[in-house]
Amino acid sequence: MSEGIWNRMQRIDRRVLYWILFVGLMIPFIRPIGLPIAIKSSTRDLYEELRQVEEGEVAVLSISSGVSAWAECLPSMVACMKVLVQQNAKIIGWTTFIDGPLTWDKIVSLVPGLEEYTYGEDYVWFGYFAGAETGVAQLASDIRSVFTADYYGTPIDELQIMKDVNDVHDIKLVLSSDTGDACDYYIRQWHTPYGTPVAEVGIAMQGSAYMPHYRAGILFGMSVGVRGGAEMEKLINEPGNATVSMDAINISHIMLVIVVVLSNVGYIMTRGKR
């Protein structure tokens, strides 16, 4: 009887396994499970530092990631924005990516608290600037030398939020979301010469690149990939897209382990038998 069961299991059509996996992956997309994940110190430090921002202080969200990075970066950026809004901080956004405005619009649409914010007074979007690190350095010394108006054409001096914001000294911290090395620009041009706190929200591969900066105290925090996004969602107690993605990843891994174990048990049980 036992031999028959194991033989039949080993002859299961692989398409059946694919369907089981497909159904398992559907579950978190219908309703997030929130499977346990450990929160890394780098993510927790990012969250705690944002919680220290006082009402009226100015934070910069620098977007150097495009639509292709939404799966990994967007959830954490949304979570960070929610924390800043809870702290009643003022928020300035700009980007070095052509499709950065799409990312900004998506973030704004996913942060309900911004409905109580007044555009131009509590937050502002300047859009794209050229020059990469040269532009970042120029922003540190004189924001008005880079932007004379916001993304929608309103002169910068007509924006209430910019009344007392002229350079790096008027900025509390910078969140750099990128898929490359844009965070290095802020480290070299903002943090090193002026001591401005900088944090990284990046794709998974950024973890190995920027973890030494975090451990050295250069970055006050990091959110790495979709895992970092799920950790941030857990910290703010609002499961979102990153939690769904991590649930799906965990389910697929659990199912893979089960299949590998059963395959090996089946081999042992039928070894040497016809």
Describe the structure.
The chain has helices spanning 2-10, 14-30, 41-51, 70-86, 100-109, 133-141, 182-194, 206-215, 225-235, 241-270; strands at 58-64, 90-95, 123-128, 173-178, 198-202, 219-224. By secondary structure, it is α/β, with parallel strands linked by helices. The protein is built from ten helices and six strands. It folds into two domains: 2-32 and 249-270, no CATH class; 41-238, Rossmann fold (3-Layer(aba) Sandwich), CATH 3.40.50. The relative contact order is 0.18. Strands 3-2-1-4-5-6 form a six-stranded parallel sheet, sandwiched between helices. The mean pLDDT is 92.
Q: Reading side by side through the largest sheet, how are the strands ordered?
A: 3-2-1-4-5-6
What does the average pLDDT come to?
Answer: 92
Helix content: 40-55%
How does the major sheet shape up?
Answer: 6 strands, parallel
CATH class of the largest domain: Alpha Beta
CATH topology of the largest domain: Rossmann fold
Rg measurement, Å: 23 Å
Categorize the overall geometry: elongated
What is the count of β-strands?
A: 6
CA distance, first residue to last residue: 14 Å
Gross CATH architecture of the largest domain? 3-Layer(aba) Sandwich
**What class do helices, strands and sheet pairing give?**
alpha/beta
Strand residues, percent = 5-15%
Poorly predicted runs of 5 or more residues: none
Number of domains: 2
Order of SSEs: HHHEHEHEHEHEHEHH
Alpha plus pi helix count = 10
